[in-house]
Task: structure prediction
Amino acid sequence: MTNWRDQIPQAAQEFLSGRRLDEIECIIADMAGVARGKAMPAFKFGADTKYYLPNSIFLQTITGGWAEFRDGADLEPDMIMRPDFSTATAAPWTADWTLQIIHDAEDSEGRPISTAPRNVLRHVLDLYRAEGWQPVIAPEMEFFFVARNLDPNNPIIPPMGRTGRRAAARQAYSMSAVDEYGKVIDDIYDFAEAMGLEIDGILQEGGAGQVEINLAHGDPLNLADQVFYFKRMIREAALRHDMFATFMAKPIEGEPGSAMHMHHSVIDTGTGKNIFSTEAGESTDAFMHFIGGLQRHLPRAVALIAPYVNSYRRYVPDFAAPINLEWGYDNRTTGLRVPISSPASRRVENRLAGMDCNPYLGIAASLACGYLGLKEGIGPREECRTNAYMDDNDLPMTLGAALDMFEGAGQLHEILDPEFCRIYAAVKRNEYNEFLQVISPWEREHLLLNV
Result:
């Protein structure tokens, strides 16, 4: 690894040009998509060929607890972290000159750790590759800027804008609403440029302080890495301006939730053409089968795309979140929307995932469902040409119900990896059971003296 700097992307090299690199952050995404790892002085990085972390980081819950097993997993053996130099990027918010590098997790024999979320996505992509297919995705990231919330007992409120007033709701696509927190947006642009991350567009969403950032289409693993980096970077940019950025699915009562919409297409690696369109520009059977796979298998994958109890507060009527698996052309009320596009860009948009999902797992789950549709030749239901918000719910509406369905999804487990699915379900059961022990303000208000 003596020439590791020659292997990093151009943006990282430009960031370091004429500067002395101080620190390297060796990071990996855990089950929640949180960056775990270790930092080291730059001069020490490269002296070793591999680094170590306990594989128990994939057993950790969002509250800091641990899922327990009786098969030796509690011995906490080390896993090997190998740097993926193509992911090296600046950490431009730090006080010194720092690079972040995403690492892959392997066991002592050099085999991928099946419970590492990045490896789960890579495994799904390998299945596509074996069929001569290359999936292409484009994520849309919705999130809220909010006022600092130092006491969890207090509700989350919108941030103060440059006018001295709190951000207002129901201002979708308003340029003046985006300008209210323009300085933090400027920092996001500057950080993204230093990191080599491409922003396709920024717009105001319907919630108070709610923003959407669109990313350009590309390789799913690369885009998942970008979302992973963006979430950390956006939080840091917000903190510079005395506010929080949150990716909770539903942070503010009465406001819309935040989604991670995912646009999917699939390229034939031999011809370079989109398998969703014919030479004449019409939709193909493969396109219909991909949609059919999403309709049949996504209910069992909801625990991956809506991973917390808060996620299901987004799945309520009349808040611009589809609670259905209908599909339709240019119909935003459907959970599976087919945007207007050229034949070469024909795609389906999965609008069901929350922004709180781990990007590696959310993308892997959606692609896995489409893959099963392609392999099984599943046909979709008839196109929805009406307001799908009025239809019956197709999805589990609590984390407990979603986990019940996920645990029985044998086909999905085979695609994602059975050991990963077993551990993921255990982690989420632990979180859910811990939540059930909490007594909420609603219960105290309405039940204390009335029942």
Summary: The longest strand covers residues 133-147. DSSP finds eleven helices and 14 strands in the chain. The CA atoms of residues 174 and 204 lie 6 Å apart.
